[in-house]
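Board notes, transcribed. Complex of a protein with pyridoxal-5'-phosphate.
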Amino acid sequence: MDVLNKITKFVEEHHAQLVVVSKTYPSERLKEVYDQGIRIFGENKVQEILEKKEILPSDIQWHMIGHLQSNKVKQIVSFITLIHSVDSEKLLNEIQKQAKKIDRKVDVLLQMHIAMEETKFGLDENELKNILDNINSGKYSHVRIRGLMGMATFTEDENIVRNEFKTLKKIFDQTKLSLLHSSFDTLSMGMSGDYELAIEEGSNMVRIGSLIFGKRNYG
Ligand SMILES: *Cc1c(COP(=O)(O)O)cnc(C)c1O
């Protein structure tokens, strides 16, 4: 597990956090990484989180990093540690509703659309502004907005990726200033191919899968 040690060391030195992205890998692989000391795992499907959670140790912190449908929120609201992928006001409203029902305060990140690909999910700056107004008006009593998440364009061109990260960092800093009550401290950006760059540009949470586990088999 040389790679994992190298990543862990780099991430710690930069006061960032590592989310090990375990989607598509079997639970036995997660257990190996767990035994190396990893406790934060990121998944992108509700069903897969529920299945793995059944089998694996209970002190794992599960992060939802993929697109989340509103009708599935209630299945994870009671235990999820962080939802990275809040990409609509509708979803945020549903998280508030379900969290209130069980009187839990749920930590979330707002996912921003920073990439050139239209296919990627995320809010634009107008949508963000609307949500921030609602947050400041006290609408979300059972949600804690902890920060932002973004995914850069899938490209070899480092300049494009760097600029997108810079943009997200700027939005992050502005958002932090505009919030009245805030535990806004998390900037989730950077994956296997660009995590070092992301950290250089101000990320404090990286989401890394294939670099640790090897190539994903989507079957
Ligand atoms: C799959 C995924 C990752 C990790 O991707 P790798 O390239 O395997 O590190 C990170 N973030 C999100 C949102 C993902 O869906």
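The longest strand covers residues 143-150. Residues 21, 23, 44, 65-66, 151, 191-192, 207-211 surround pyridoxal-5'-phosphate (CB under 6 Å).
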